[in-house]
Design brief:
Shape: rod-shaped
Largest sheet: 7 strands, antiparallel
Structural class: alpha+beta
Order of helices and strands: HEEEEEEEEEE
Number of strands: 10
Distance between the termini: 105 Å
Radius of gyration: 42 Å
Helix content: 10-25%
CATH architecture: Sandwich
CATH class: Mainly Beta
Number of domains: 1
CATH superfamily: Fimbrial-type adhesion domain
CATH topology: Immunoglobulin-like
């Protein structure tokens, strides 16, 4: 009977061992973990765009005419910008010829001389890269400065009738 009991114990032990092995196959294994990091970054570049209003001096009658153009700029916050006329002057005293539509810059009755300044007192003249208007961007659109223009008096009463114009280029450097 002892032999049967031993056989029974051995059989029970083997059954238990088989069950444990089977159950162990279903117990999930634990995994080791490790962490890492990454850095996210970007840059903000300087940008600056601008536009200008036109200057309309009105009708010339041999008297001085004045007008102004507003520079509107949208520059990145903190960006320093400089505005300069980059059109070559084509008259005496760094003036620009406003030429009559259909007329000739070489014919005196077909042009009027205009000069441009950085302040309303007409002290600091603006012409090809001489004197500039400075501005620091705010990140939104705003007035960067004003260009003041003057058509001098006494340019003669013999001017041909019509529209007198000149396209002036203003460059921003930032």
């Amino acid at each position: 009977m002892k032999k049967n009991l031993n056989k029974f114990k051995i059989a029970t032990a083997l059954t238990a061992l088989t069950l444990l092995t089977t159950v162990a196959d279903y117990i999930p294994a634990t995994a080791d973990t490790n962490t890492g990091t990454f850095t996210a970054s970007t840059t903000v570049g300087s940008t600056c765009t601008h536009s200008l209003s036109d200057i309309s001096f009105g009708a010339y009658a041999n008297i001085q005419l004045t007008g102004n153009a507003t520079i509107t700029a949208n520059c990145t916050n903190g960006t320093s910008a400089t505005f300069a006329i980059t059109t070559t002057a084509d008259g005496n005293l760094n003036s620009y010829k406003l030429v009559r539509t259909g007329g000739s810059a070489g014919t005196s009755n077909d042009f009027l001389l205009a000069t441009f300044f950085k302040e309303s007192g007409f002290t600091n003249q603006l012409y090809l890269n001489n004197n500039t208007i400075t501005y620091t961007g705010t990140g939104s659109s705003g007035t960067a400065g004003t260009i003041y223009g003057k058509v001098a008096a006494s340019q003669g009463t013999n001017k041909a009738p019509g529209s007198f114009t000149k396209t002036i280029t203003v460059q921003v450097t930032y």
